[in-house]
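SUBJECT: protein chain
CONTENTS: sequence, structure tokens:
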Amino acid sequence: MSNKTISPKEQLINQFKQLGLIKNVHWVILEEDDKPFITIDGLLWLANNHPDEEKRAVDIQSQLLQTQPVIIVKSKVTLSSGISAEALGSASREYADTDRLIELAESRATARALRKLYALGTPVEEN
């Protein structure tokens, strides 16, 4: 019997695979960190396809709270079990390389709410 210790990185990768997440679609390994990061697409896929039906999202609501000087969006995600989480996301021209700041702030808020609900132990790759 082997006593091989599994690294935290390998544990995360195994967890992603057990959840049905696909490498380079739902999660990536960023070269500079050599750590697995889940993507917003991975979190949204998980919200709709979680193996435990009680952990599937039934409602995602976003609200634009502020547009100047920084865009701030609040997102609330509710799972079929009734558990919900809220989070804020922000974006500004100073730090984002896009004109789609509202969408960026909303994606960040939604990703953060989903991270709270799923507690995967890994950051989200934010664009």
